[in-house]
Batch of 2 targets.
Target 1
Amino acid sequence: MSKSNLGIIVTSSVVGLIPAILMMFIAWSHNSQDEIHRNGVVDWAYLLTIGNSWFAPVFLIVAAIMLSLRAYSNRDIRCQNCAGKMKPENGKMWRCEECGNVVHK
Ligand SMILES: [Zn+2]
């Protein structure tokens, strides 16, 4: 696994855990009809389902946005003169690998 894929997974997980933990905390505090815990017995399946119902969609949406941004920044730019591949140069311009044509970003 590449370093940037790991970064997307870690970032999406951290962002997903925020609402998951918050909603699990609210469910634990509210505990209506003792559904989450009663006399020291915890319904982990219910509690973790509440957490995962926030973690999973937030993780997927954040990962999808980050993958889209990476794909966009790595998009294939072609030269207008010769259709050669344009390479980024010092962050401000693209230079054609074939003919040396320069385009400013
Ligand atoms: Zn060119």
Target 2
Amino acid sequence: MPKITVVTMDTLTDDQKDKVKEIFVDSYYKEMKALSPKKENLLRGFTHVLREEAIHVAMLDDKPVAMAGCSTNKRRSMQAHKTDFLANFGMLMGPFGTACFKKEFETPLQINDDTLYFECVATDEAHRRKGIATEMLSELIRTLPYQTFSLDVYNTNDCAKRIYERIGFKETGRKKSLIGKIFLGYQENIWMSRPKSL
Ligand SMILES: CC(C)(COP(=O)(O)OP(=O)(O)OC[C@H]1O[C@@H](n2cnc3c(N)ncnc32)[C@H](O)[C@@H]1OP(=O)(O)O)[C@@H](O)C(=O)NCCC(=O)NCCS
């Protein structure tokens, strides 16, 4: 297992931040490609979406290799950016993407003050299956001052669900997703959580 360190995105150089954005767009291309199939448009459209102080990045030496958004009931780790969305996704998908993004990522989470919620967990494709996501999430659970950690995962994402279960997350509920069913080929979001100490 390669030795990683975990830092917040706001401490990185511009080149390293660009790499984090690339990991984000590559890893969620399937979800984002309806906005634009062109990766360069997605990178520009999502330039200001990640809230850097809430994005934790796994570094291998000085190279970003994975990321996890850490949200609370007061602050999400992502935000819509209407101007960038309009400029890069057009007059139809720009407003549609802004509305979907606001609904999905700017709604306050119904979680307690002592709960942290992981979202947009992703590993650089070249560094997958080396235990990096497992190590990054385990490190965040060890070090961040929260008593409960939660997340949700598509019911079709077996790989991610297995990782979360191995780390100690247990299913707490399921919610049907119309957007998932129509656009993304999944039916339900599975909510999972684990206490800090198992
Ligand atoms: C899901 C995701 C974050 C996993 O990242 P990762 O760094 O590859 O995860 P890990 O390496 O910790 O674990 C993945 C698998 O590699 C295996 N693995 C870990 N270390 C390994 C090693 N040294 N050699 C071989 N396999 C290894 C794990 O056992 C696990 O196997 P499994 O799928 O059979 O359970 C990554 O696939 C990704 O970015 N996917 C796209 C975005 C996404 O779906 N995110 C989750 C949204 S909820």
